[in-house]
């Protein structure tokens, strides 16, 4: 299938945690949020066990990094007419650098974070 990718499109091979894969064609103008919505609306039959309740919790991982919803494929400089592999995971929120995740790892219950009002 990969050899038939139109020259102005990007073929994404999405891999689930379970290891199942499926390929979808997207335009460079499509954002991570657009892709999540498209995949959710066209959920593959053989992914039934992994079905999620909402497209908003679908996250793309490219080269080990979570993509925020507004990032387009073009902005990632993905090659046109080729297949790019990404992971697709269900996750409520994206990890923020130096946010609560950092605090939760500390042993004390105290917060050494400042609230700016």
Main beta sheet = 5 strands, mixed
Radius of gyration: 17 Å
Tell me the fraction of residues in β-strands, as a range.
15-25%
What is the CA-CA span between the terminal residues? 54 Å
Please tell me the overall pLDDT: 85
Give the spatial strand order of the biggest sheet: 2-1-5-3-4
Number of helices: 2
Low-confidence stretches: 99-111
- Structural class, from secondary structure content? alpha+beta
How are helices and strands ordered from N to C?
EEHEEEH
CATH topology (level 3) name of the domain at 10-90? Ubiquitin-like (UB roll)
Pfam families: Rad60-SLD_2
Membrane topology: Lipid-anchor
Domain Ubiquitin-like: 10-88
Keywords: Cell membrane, Lipoprotein, Membrane, Methylation, Palmitate, Prenylation
Describe the structure.
- By secondary structure, the chain is α+β, with helices and mostly antiparallel strands.
- It has a domain at about 10-90: Ubiquitin-like (UB roll), CATH 3.10.20.90.
- About 15% of the residues lie in helices and about 25% in strands.
- The protein contains two helices and five strands.
């Amino acid at each position: 299938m990969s050899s038939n990718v139109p020259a102005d499109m990007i073929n994404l091979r999405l891999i689930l945690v379970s290891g199942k894969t499926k390929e979808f064609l997207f335009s460079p103008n499509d954002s991570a949020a657009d892709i999540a919505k498209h995949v959710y609306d066209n959920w593959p039959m053989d992914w039934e066990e992994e079905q999620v309740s909402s497209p908003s919790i679908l996250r793309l991982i490219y080269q080990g990094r979570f993509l925020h919803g507004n990032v387009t494929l073009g902005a990632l400089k993905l090659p046109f007419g080729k297949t790019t592999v990404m992971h697709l995971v269900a996750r409520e929120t994206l990890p923020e650098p130096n946010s609560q995740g950092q605090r939760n790892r500390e042993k004390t219950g105290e917060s050494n974070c400042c609230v700016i009002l």
